[in-house]
Amino acid sequence: MDLKNKFNNFWKYIKEAKKITLCTHIEPDGDTLGSAVALQHLILLNEKDKEVRISGSDYPRNLLFLLDNKQGNLVDDEFFSESLKIVVDTSTKERIYDQRVITKKALKIDHHPFENEWLFEIGGDFWPATGQLITKLAKELKLKVNEKVLEALGVAILTDTEFFKERNVNSETFECMQYLLDNNLNYSQLIKKMQLNNDELDFIFNAINNKKVKGIVSYLVVDEVVSNDIVRPLVAKFVELSNTEVSLAILRSINNVYRCEIRSKTNYNVSKVANHFLGGGHFNSSGFIIENLSNLNEILDYINNSKISN
């Protein structure tokens, strides 16, 4: 089935539903939030008599301008049970923030490798951001858009491509951004809205000063709690300032485990490293969790001794 037919079938489910719950992933980033907000407003703009809610929380502070409900939360049980569930930018059941979701009874629109069984799925690791996929959906189905849709899709694409620095950015990515701009996205205003505050910038600057190198790996250990607000921009800035093939940021989470974000610049498949340590992700961008720092040298040695290029 080609992508346009998948879009049409996906939208048929939406047409048939009165209530819809959009579910984001744990440790949410700009792509899952932006994609959910964009899809919510696309449905409300283009279909009559729909009630669409987003179920999730812990969204980055600098992206809360996208939300009507600034805090974000799980939808109530009654609405959830009566609604069509659509999971956005989330690879597996374990990654869904709202654990009430039964994948076989839910739709998924995503840009990760195919995993789990879904009622209907548009996925596969073919796009740098789910926001790009939803932009294509809006364009192909000729859906009406507004400022909220445009900003949300802009956030989704910009944050998950790390402002067009990811390896799998392609001409279609820029065509999608052109579509948003042609529909009057105020790009400079959006960038201003997404800015970090001074405290967040200072934290990132101080953390990156502790960068170390071992073999092909630049690595960073942050033993202070790193809130989800700044994980993505911290990692993006760290990778930008690293000159090795692999960059590994090891960040203490609020629950005192360590969130390991691993990136590569060219042909090193970091998803295989993440899988080895029970995580996952994309070829050039993946992650995993460790309980403590006792196996840090094991991780660094594994990366350096593995010849992973496909």
TrEMBL record:
Residues 215-304 form the DHHA1 domain. It holds the Pfam family DHH. InterPro entries: DDH_dom, DHH_sf, DHHA1_dom, Oligoribo/pAp-PDE_c-di-AMP_PDE. Transmembrane segments: none annotated. The keyword Hydrolase applies. Keywords: Hydrolase. Residues 19-156 form the DDH domain. Coiled coil: none annotated. One of its GO terms (molecular function) is nucleic acid binding. PANTHER family: BIFUNCTIONAL OLIGORIBONUCLEASE AND PAP PHOSPHATASE NRNA. This is NanoRNase/pAp phosphatase (C-di-AMP/oligoRNAs hydrolase).
